[in-house]
């Protein structure tokens, strides 16, 4: 009986080595860490339009408009194009997360399931300032791939195929999201900083002799807001680095698709996972 068990165990180990269980575990660690890394992207996306609104409010107050309701309403009207981009950004992140879950399932030889609501979300996406129509096509292709993997019962043997088919679109998607964060979002924060600076400086100059205590409080408030925006700019750069690292890890899997079960792939993909972990820590409480 023991001999039979040993034979069964030996066959299982051999099968695992052939199919790359160890390497696929490393891939699961990479996808799992990547999913965790993208968890806060919707919070950042929410701040795209909000940063624009805050900037407009600062400018309006400086010009003498003090009605809070009107301030908010007028600012939102001016930032409406960014609100559309925010929606597309969040949907794009949903697709990215669903794709990473798909890879995770395939690497674990599990049945692929996904949130089918993303089919409708992507189908209803329109053009926007930061995520144009061409990117919507990229999202549609990824959603179709995820749907095929789910409906056709893909398992571990289809892992290489999924990576191969998705890589061009994943690289495009991650590059686009990274550029939005690193360039557009950071620019919005810089504009907000400048608008706040102009308001606070003008107010301080006008009241420095009349209300010295108020000026001290204003200076302290300005310092807090400036520090917060600086932290967000640094965190935005870190988030862009996270997306770039995920793209590089996926490119590695694409380049080594014929040897996904090899020790070399295991070591290299673990290196990318190790790079992601401290980056996640840096943005933990920033968004």
Characterise this structure.
This is Lipoprotein. It comes from Spirosoma radiotolerans. The chain is an all-alpha fold and 287 residues long. It has one domain (27-283). The protein is 82% helix and 0% strand. The chain is built from ten helices and no strands. It has helices at 2-19, 21-37, 41-62, 68-78, 80-107, 117-123, 133-151, 159-207, 212-255, 263-283. Helix 7 packs across helix 8 and helix 9 (212-255) runs antiparallel to helix 10 (263-283). The protein is elongated, with a radius of gyration of 24 Å. The model is unreliable at 1-20 (pLDDT under 50).
Low-pLDDT stretches are: 1-20
N-to-C SSE series? HHHHHHHHHH
- Helix share, percent: over 70%
Distance N to C terminus: 58 Å
Task: Give the total of beta strands.
Answer: 0
In the residues, how many domains can be counted?
1
Give the C-alpha Rg: 24 Å
Number of helical stretches of at least 4 residues:
10
Strand content: under 5%
Shape: elongated
Structural class per helix/strand content? mainly alpha
Mean pLDDT over the full residue set: 86
Q: How many strands, what sense, and barrel or not for the largest sheet? A: none
């Amino acid at each position: 009986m023991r001999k039979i068990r040993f034979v069964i165990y030996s066959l299982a180990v051999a099968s695992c080595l052939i199919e790359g269980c160890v390497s696929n575990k490393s891939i699961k660690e990479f996808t799992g860490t990547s999913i965790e890394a993208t968890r806060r992207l919707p919070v950042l996306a929410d701040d795209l339009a909000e940063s624009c609104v805050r900037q407009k409010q600062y400018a309006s107050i400086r010009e003498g408009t003090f009605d809070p309701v009107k301030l908010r309403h007028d600012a939102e009207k001016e930032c409406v194009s960014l609100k559309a981009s925010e929606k597309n950004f969040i949907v794009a992140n949903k697709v990215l997360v669903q794709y990473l879950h798909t890879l995770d399932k395939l690497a674990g030889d599990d049945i692929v399931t996904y949130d089918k609501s993303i089919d409708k979300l992507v189908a209803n996406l329109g053009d926007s300032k930061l995520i144009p129509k061409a990117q919507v096509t990229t999202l549609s292709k990824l959603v179709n791939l995820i749907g095929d993997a789910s409906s056709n019962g893909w398992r571990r043997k289809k892992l290489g195929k999924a990576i191969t088919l998705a890589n061009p679109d994943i690289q495009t998607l991650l590059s686009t999201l990274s550029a939005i964060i690193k360039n557009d979002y950071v620019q919005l924060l810089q504009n907000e900083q400048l608008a706040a600076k102009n308001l606070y400086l003008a107010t301080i100059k006008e009241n420095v002799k009349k209300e010295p205590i108020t000026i001290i409080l204003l200076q302290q408030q300005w310092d807090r807001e400036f520090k917060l925006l600086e932290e967000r700019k640094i965190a935005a750069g870190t988030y862009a680095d996270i997306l770039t690292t995920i793209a590089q890890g996926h490119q590695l899997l694409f380049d080594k698709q014929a040897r996904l079960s090899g020790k070399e792939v295991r070591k290299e993909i673990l290196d990318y996972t190790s790079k992601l972990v401290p980056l996640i820590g840096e943005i933990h409480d920033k968004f």
